[in-house]
């Protein structure tokens, strides 16, 4: 199935969008959250509304890959580059995702997954009108180089970064970041039309993921970026994960 619409076909195809779906599987992600997150992507690709957004593009096709990430060197491709140009392509993508096992990792390296996403986009050799990395995560960067450095590298290449901050309050040994949406806004997302959709309740996963994907596929490049200029950033906020990890290691 992938031979017809996956990486082998991508080298010669022009697409409206090349999209890296980067899904958090770090240790702070509880099994139920992982399952809801995966189910949200599966249902989104089975949605007629998603394919309708693809069809309305200038070329009427996109390329997408689904990866899971955690620490600085913990990134894995679950579904390789796949071209979506027919409703059946999206259904096949969803079916393959439903059959893939769930994994779990360690730390949280947003900078690591941005760097990995940039390499995937470069190695795909696709001619894409737009390139985007779509990151879900439930905590700030605490491994690898500062997230803003990686984010700025991606923006310099014309890559848009969107976010799905997961802000579900639950009993856990991992301290939560109360203003994770603000962290994503100031430190993670960026590029023309960039946006984020926070998830604050498990029941929101399905709709949030579907809405985010449809908005990304439709594209709104004329919108102002939500990136905070470097001179205006709260650097303490953008290093919150690293600071918190150091404090935990002292105790």
UniProtKB/TrEMBL annotation:
<dbReference type="InterPro" id="IPR010607">
    <property type="entry name" value="DUF1194"/>
</dbReference>
<keyword id="KW-0614">Plasmid</keyword>
<dbReference type="Pfam" id="PF06707">
    <property type="entry name" value="DUF1194"/>
</dbReference>
<dbReference type="InterPro" id="IPR036465">
    <property type="entry name" value="vWFA_dom_sf"/>
</dbReference>
<protein>
    <submittedName>
        <fullName>DUF1194 domain-containing protein</fullName>
    </submittedName>
</protein>
């Amino acid at each position: 199935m992938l031979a017809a619409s996956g990486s082998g076909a991508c080298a010669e195809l022009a697409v409206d969008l090349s999209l890296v779906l980067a899904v958090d599987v770090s240790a702070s992600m509880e099994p139920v959250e992982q399952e809801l997150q995966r189910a949200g992507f599966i249902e989104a690709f089975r949605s007629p509304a998603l394919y309708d957004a693809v069809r309305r593009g200038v070329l009427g096709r996109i390329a997408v890959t689904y990866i899971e990430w955690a620490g600085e060197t913990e990134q894995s491709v679950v579904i390789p580059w796949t071209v979506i140009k027919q409703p059946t392509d999206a259904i096949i993508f969803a079916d393959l995702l439903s059959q893939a096992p769930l994994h779990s990792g360690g730390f949280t390296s947003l900078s690591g997954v941005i760097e990995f996403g940039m390499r995937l986009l470069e190695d795909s050799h696709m001619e894409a009108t737009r390139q985007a990395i779509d990151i879900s995560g439930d905590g700030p960067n605490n491994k690898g180089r500062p997230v803003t450095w990686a984010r700025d590298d991606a923006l310099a290449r014309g890559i848009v970064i969107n976010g799905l901050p997961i802000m579900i309050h639950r009993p856990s040994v991992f301290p939560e970041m109360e203003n994770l949406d603000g962290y994503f806004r100031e430190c993670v997302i960026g590029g023309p039309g960039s946006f984020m959709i926070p998830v604050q309740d498990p029941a929101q996963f399905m709709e949030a993921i579907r809405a985010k994907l449809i908005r990304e596929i439709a594209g709104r490049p004329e919108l102002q970026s939500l990136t905070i200029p470097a001179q205006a950033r709260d650097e303490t906020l953008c290093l919150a994960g690293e600071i918190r990890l150091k404090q935990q290691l002292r105790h």
